[in-house]
């Protein structure tokens, strides 16, 4: 087994040597930021020393007939994505992570997934990139699909190292990197609420909000009103989260849910179905306000109960965007993956998910959103006339004409029209459809 060196992320000044399948298996949660359960994970290796590069994750398809085509798509995605970032991989490491089902043991999981591992090895080989190692991680043990040696890779598998005892764990602790638990636990924070009483109340609120707001969103005249009301409500809710006592980590989501009523959640969820309103909400992406926006988007995603699961694509995408913008790539990938699960054709989530997986810099999008906010402010200033300071300066420079003497009028003064300080309202520009393009 070759040695591999991790030089990405906060530990980029160190070179961490991983020796053999055991340390590779132990490093996986630190590479991803969480324990990827029920997942295919592929990691690109570069150079003769096997420097880690791009990585991707996908839930293991339940239908084995899909495995060959999925393997081809994953291999192409990782290799082509690495090439776009500047370097074709020299090799790939594959991880298949799945806990045993009831009545099943880890060895049976490994054998059941062996065809998928072979499909992935074949698909990568067809693109002239070898799979250097393929590991199955299940039930606290790991198996190698590539090593035939019974001495180092026995049929019953090898036990995973004790958490926190490996060289990767030590380096991650030194760098302040934390593993946040399992993928299932991270997804649960964004999943719809399941308490029957809460679900029934939220359904009624969403039904009422839909009946009231959707016709307005589809109407050109009422669409702007809904956008303003939605964004004003978002500001109030973020302020409420900010002023509330700091929640404990174990009860933070529950505390946030209590601060938002069913009607308020429904109004914002429906309002965010308009693309332009959602794009305005994406501007809460940095600084102190980003944390409160993220808490709000998570809470709204949990309120998208049956049959409104598809509406969760908007708050989930915003949660993914804020996570990515603030440096939380694992959280971004999880939220964006759930957004695409809610609506596979949600364009904003597709673009963000691809950009995040390709390792692009979110600053490009941040600059774009800042520019739009600045242009909108400039247009608002034009609609309200010149700034007050400019009007005052202009007034001070005006002098009566030389030689002209103003006489007081004789007789009763009749009031005339008073010139307005503001220009008349301009006709709003044409707007796009409320849900087109997303």
Question: How would you characterize the overall build of this protein?
Answer:
The protein has 438 residues and is of the alpha+beta class. The chain is built from 16 helices and eight strands. Strand 3 (39-46) and strand 4 form a beta hairpin. The longest helix has 24 residues, at 220-243. Residues 1-13 and 391-437 have low confidence and may be disordered.
Multimeric status of the protein: single chain
Major sheet strand order? 4-3-5-6-7-8
Rounded to the nearest angstrom, the distance between the terminal CA atoms is 46 Å
Helix content percent band: 40-55%
- Provide a count of the helices: 16
- Name the beta content range: 5-15%
Average pLDDT metric: 82
Shape: elongated
Give a quick account of the main beta sheet: strands, pairing sense, barrel closure.
6 strands, mixed
Query: Regions with pLDDT < 50 over 5+ consecutive residues?
Result: 1-13, 391-437
DSSP, total strands: 8
What's the order of the H and E elements? EEHEEHEHEEEHHHHHHHHHHHHH
**Structural class assignment:** alpha+beta
Cα gyration radius (Å):
28 Å
